[in-house]
Specification:
The protein is of the alpha+beta class. The protein contains 2 helices and 8 strands; from the N terminus they run E-E-E-H-E-E-E-E-E-H. The strands form 2 sheets. It has a 5-stranded antiparallel sheet.
């Protein structure tokens, strides 16, 4: 069982947010420092309201505009790299594409 510890996060430190597969009410948050935390009972809408740099790219993921290295029509490449050294790519769903593009160009 995981520990239930309350921590204080700087919203500006968030790079990437992913909905937990086991419990969609929980969100896995990846920080600039490389640290990862689980936010319990938190919606994407709540995070988007609190953190103006976050943008939704698909049903399960939010990214920080500061974390974007580049993008194509249906995916976004993040500055963050995986353990094997390859860039992190996330799907850019068509339902969220226009908002993402507008936010990237402002």
């Amino acid at each position: 069982a995981g520990s239930e510890v309350r921590i204080k996060l700087q919203l500006s430190d968030i790079l990437f947010v992913k909905t937990d597969k086991a419990n969609c009410r929980d969100k896995r948050v990846y920080l600039k420092s490389g640290e990862q935390y689980t936010l319990r009972r938190c919606t994407n809408e709540q995070l988007l309201k609190m953190a103006p740099k976050l943008v939704q790219v698909n049903k399960a993921e939010l990214i920080s505009l500061d974390a974007v290295k580049g993008f194509k029509y249906n995916f976004v490449v993040l500055k963050q790299i995986t353990e094997d050294g390859s860039p992190v790519k996330v799907t850019l769903n068509r339902n969220f594409r226009s908002d993402f593009m507008r936010r990237m160009h402002n």
